[in-house]
Structure formats: C-alpha cells, structure tokens
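Sanity check record (used in CI):
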Amino acid sequence: MRLPLIMLLSCLCLVCKAQKTDKILEQKLQALVKDFKGDVGIYVRHLKTDKVAALQADTLFPTASMIKVPITIGMFDKIEKNEIGYDSTLVYKDSLLYEGEDLLGSFKDGEKIALKAVLMLMITTSDNTASLWCQLMAGTGTTINSWLQRNGFANTRVNSRTPGREANKAKYGWGQTTPREMAELVVRIRQGKVINPRVSERIYRNMVRIYWDTEALSQIPPYIQAASKQGAVNQSRSEVVLVNAPHGDYVFCIITKNQNDQRWTFDNEGWVLIRKVSNLLWNYFEPDSDWKPAKGIEEWY
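Expected output for Serine hydrolase:
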C-alpha cells in the first residue's frame, strides 16, 4: 500500500496549492478571458507568496508541443538508469522524419548527431522529428506515463503512439494535461525535484533557451530569465512559463481549446490572449518595472 499512498499525497500536494487564492488577480484574468471565443484554462502561482489564481485550472486540455516536457523527462530517466548515454552519438534515418520545418528533418539518411543535441532541439526549437525520436527511445508513451503517474501527475499523459490511448488521442491529440499540472511540473524542474538536481538543472537550461519567443516571452523583459514551452494546433494555443523575476519566481500556464480562430497569424485570438496574460502577470508581480515591449516589435514576427 506504500506506493499508492505516496501517489495520493503527491496529488493532494498539487491540489492544496489552490487554497491561497489571489482573488484580485483572478478577477483581472477573468476580465481578459470573458469574451474569448473558445475554452480557456489558466493557472498562476507566485512561488514566494504561494498565492495562486486559477480559471479552469484542473480541466483537461490538449498539450500540443508542451508534451515535450514529459518526453524529455522520460529520456533523462532512461539516461539516469544507464540505459543510454547522454554523450551517445545517434544515426539519423529517413524513417524518423516528421514532415514540417524541423532542423533534424533536414538531415540526410545516415548522418550522425549527438543525443544531447537531439534533446536540445526537442525543447529549444520544438523539433517534432527530434521529439518523436526521443519518445521512441524513452520506451514509448507508456513508459513516460508511468513516470508521471508515479510522481503524482494524474492527468498529464502522452497519447500519440501509445497503446490503449487511441480515444484520448482522438480527443486531445499528442498529449493532454491541466494548466495546474503542467505548471507544477515545471516548478518541480525549477526546484531540482525531477529525477534528481543534476537532471532538473539540465532540463531547465534547455527550457531557458527557447526559439519561439513571440508570445508570452515577448511580454517579459529580454534580460529576465524565463523557462518555457509552447504548444499550438489549429483549435488550441498554449504556453507554460516560469519567470525568475526580481520579486520572486512565478509560474503560469495558459491553454485554450475549441478556438473559433484557427488562423496561423500573429493576431490569432489565442496568441493575443497569451500575450495579454503574460503582460498582465509581469506588471502585476513587478509593479515597479518601467520596461515595456518595444513599439513595432511585432513586425519582426
């Protein structure tokens, strides 16, 4: 009975965080989302004060590419068990290709690449070919989901290419999560509690080197470190961010689903909302900051 008890306590730990509610912040967030054409889930926690704001924070949403955070954990779990070496050299095969704009997908059959470079590409540039390769090497989604279950994440799961999860894949796509769980998973990484401190630090370093910085990250000063992962499919936009802010770290995750706006443009309603939420949070937690996004910066994106 010991393992189930540990799992139960871990889940309760995630839930109990919602007891200290920042009602003022929740009201501000509700005002931002009230006219959104679709469903929105938001979870925010200021780590120093332990106050939270939550809107549908325990509702299931598609992860899109945010599922790459659990996948990278699955790979590092395998590395720590000495089942594959972090310094291993891999051989790319055309059969691994996921059609798109991936860097790894531009490789020729038989080219070599370091495993640590594949792990970096999966997070930093959100390379889908690298991510699916890592999911395969980690032992498929079943192995990753087992780690999530053991560590108290009852809702976050890999669905794609995972036996028995075909119905979930049809509904949520590659993966599923809740805003609270995805945010708290990143908090665990920040605190050195994912597998061990060494692994957590390596994952965190990859997460602070994100190429896709046009949404939530664009509303945070470029000289402030932030670890993040983004996701997007036609009817959903999502981002999880942990900001190492001067007055204390804060984490937030925003996910949408059933969006009416499915355009892949800068002014997509979901991406606009993510920017607005990030801007609100930066100014809420750092009221003395005089930084503002540069005018016309959107022309670069």
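Residues 1-9, 14-18 have pLDDT under 50 and may be disordered. If this sentence no longer matches the regenerated tokens, the check is flagged for review.
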